[in-house]
Amino acid sequence: MIEHADAALEAWLSTLDPPIDITFERAGDEAGSSSRAARRPVLSLVLTSVREQLNKRDTEIADLRSDDGRVIGRQASTRFFELDYLCTVGGPARDSHRALGDLLQLLVDHDIIPVEHVPHELAALGYPIDAMVVSPRTSIAALTLRVVLPVQPTPSRDIGPPATSLHLDMSPPPVPKQWGTQKALTTGETPVGPVPEKKWTTVRRRELINRQQHAAVVAEEATAKPKQPRKGG
After folding, report:
1. Domain 2-151 belongs to what topology?
2. By CB neighbour count within 10 A (0-12 exposed, 13-18 middle, 19+ buried), where does 159 fall?
3. Rounded to an integer, what distance in angstroms lies between the CA atom of residue 63 and that of residue 162?
4. Which of 18, 8, 12, 34 is nearest to 96 (CA)?
């Protein structure tokens, strides 16, 4: 993608008038070329830094669908990178200063690269290509041109086949039980339904028998005990 940014800059800066030559090599590396023999100013654009704009990164993912609506991939969000170019002009001093001034004026008048100079690969992303002047990290007479390059991640195509059925792995609903009955539970089965009626246990039977025996003894003693004569009878 960086070569597309180079192409956009070269096409845009070639519109400067008077015209200048443009190279992405360091100044002086092509001293024997025919453009130097013509003594025309040469603008050198040297890429010095590539940094991502982390404040623009997000985690959104969009589904990519076919014509029939099926998901065939997923696309992560576009990321943005700052490309810094060190701009110097070689040639006769007066011509070099004029060319550097023309470049400065162009960058002051525009904050994006005009779309007609942007390659189709970048224009198709739908983002403007920002261009600005930043403080150079050098003591020589130069400009630092910063271009913001959008880069779209490669879509993920690792998508499984569409689902044809849905299995929830759910057990059948419990069968309601009648009051007072209790079905023998199998191992691991949880009782479901109303609380079954309590049955007589051995302890409760003994308690009932003791109460009945005690009542019989009391009744027998009451029958055998003589009645006291009533006073004044």
Report:
1. STM4215-like (3.30.2000)
2. middle
3. 14
4. 18
- Whether the pTM exceeds 0.70: the reply is no
Question: pLDDT of the chain along its 233 residues, tens only?
Answer: 899 999 999 999 999 999 999 999 987 645 444 445 457 899 999 999 999 999 988 888 888 888 887 887 888 889 999 999 999 998 888 999 999 999 999 999 999 999 999 999 999 999 999 999 998 777 677 899 999 999 988 888 776 666 667 777 777 777 776 665 555 556 565 555 555 555 556 666 777 777 878 788 778 777 776 666 665 54
Measured CA distances, 180 to 15, 177, 193, 194 (Å)? 98, 9, 11, 9
